[in-house]
Specification:
- There is one protein chain.
- By secondary structure, the protein is α/β, with parallel strands linked by helices.
- 37% of the residues lie in helices and 21% in strands.
- The longest helix has 21 residues.
C-alpha cells in the first residue's frame, strides 16, 4: 500500500520488555530487525528500524507511534482469534483502545503475489469514515501493486457517493462494485464470493467511535472462523 510518489518513512519497530537482562533482549531485537533490512534492501525500499524498551509491547508500540508521528501502525493479527473477541490485555485490544494512529492488522497466511482478487465489504456508515479517501486509495494501490482485481460491496442508497469516489480514485485496477438493498444481503453475497486466492479487507470501527455497530465485529468473527486460509486485513480509522 506504500505510495512511491509520496514522501514518508517506514519504521520497523520491535519492543523489548524492560527486564533485568535488557542488553541481551535488545541484541535479539536488533537481530530480528536485521532481517527487515535485508528484505527492504532486496525490494529497494528504505526503512529505519528501531528497538524500543518498554514495560510491555502495547505501551511500547503506542509510545513509538507518538514519537514517530506515525500515520499508520501495522501489526500482526493473532491467528488464534478475531480482534473483536475483546480479550482484555492483548496487544491488539490495547492498540484499538489507545493508539491514535490508523491501524492495520494483518493475517497473512499466503504469499501476496498469488492474490487474484481483493474483496472489501463497506458497511452503511463507511461513507462517513474520517479516513475514507485514504482507505479507498489503499485498496486500489494494494490491488494495483499485487496485480489483483478489486471487488467492493456497497449498500444501495446508503453509499454517500462512494460508488463514484471508488471508481474515480487512482491508481486504476480491474474493479467490480456489487450493490444490494440491505447489509444482510451484502454479507450473504460477500461470504458466498470468497475463494482461496482472495485477500479480504474489512473496514472496521473502534467501539468508542460514533459509527461502530456490532454488525462489523460479527462479520469479522465469521470471516476469521470460516476462512482461515485467506489473507485478511482489518483497518481502523485514526
Amino acid at each position: 500500500i506504500r505510495d512511491r510518489g509520496k514522501h514518508g518513512k517506514i519504521y520497523p519497530v520491535t519492543i523489548v520488555n524492560d527486564i533485568d537482562n535488557t542488553d541481551e533482549a535488545v541484541a535479539r531485537g536488533e537481530k530480528l530487525l536485521a532481517s527487515c533490512l535485508t528484505e527492504s534492501a532486496a525490494a529497494e525500499i528504505e526503512v529505519t528500524p528501531s528497538v524500543k524498551v518498554d514495560l510491555n509491547p502495547s505501551d511500547g508500540l503506542i509510545r513509538a507511534a507518538k514519537e514517530l508521528r506515525a500515520t499508520l501502525v501495522m501489526a500482526e493479527w493473532s491467528r488464534k482469534r478475531p480482534l473483536s473477541s475483546r480479550f482484555f490485555g492483548t496487544v491488539s485490544e490495547k492498540l484499538i483502545a489507545s493508539c491514535a494512529s490508523r491501524l492495520l492488522f494483518c493475517r497473512l497466511v499466503r504469499p501476496l503475489n498469488i492474490t487474484r482478487r481483493v474483496l472489501a465489504p463497506f458497511p452503511v456508515s463507511a461513507g462517513r469514515r474520517t479516513d475514507l479517501s485514504t482507505l479507498i486509495h489503499n485498496l486500489k494501490q494494494l490491488s494495483h501493486q499485487i496485480g489483483a482485481g478489486l471487488r467492493v460491496y456497497l449498500v444501495s442508497g446508503e453509499t454517500n457517493g462512494l460508488h463514484q469516489r471508488i471508481t474515480a480514485a487512482r491508481p486504476t485496477c480491474p474493479l467490480e462494485i456489487i450493490e444490494a438493498e440491505t447489509w444482510n444481503e451484502i454479507q450473504t453475497l460477500f461470504l458466498a464470493d470468497i475463494s482461496p486466492h482472495d485477500l479480504i479487507l474489512l473496514p472496521e470501527e473502534r467501539r468508542s467511535g460514533l459509527f461502530w455497530t456490532p454488525a462489523m465485529d460479527k462479520l469479522q468473527e465469521t470471516v476469521f472462523a470460516r476462512f482461515p486460509e485467506n489473507n485478511l486485513l482489518s483497518v481502523y480509522p485514526p
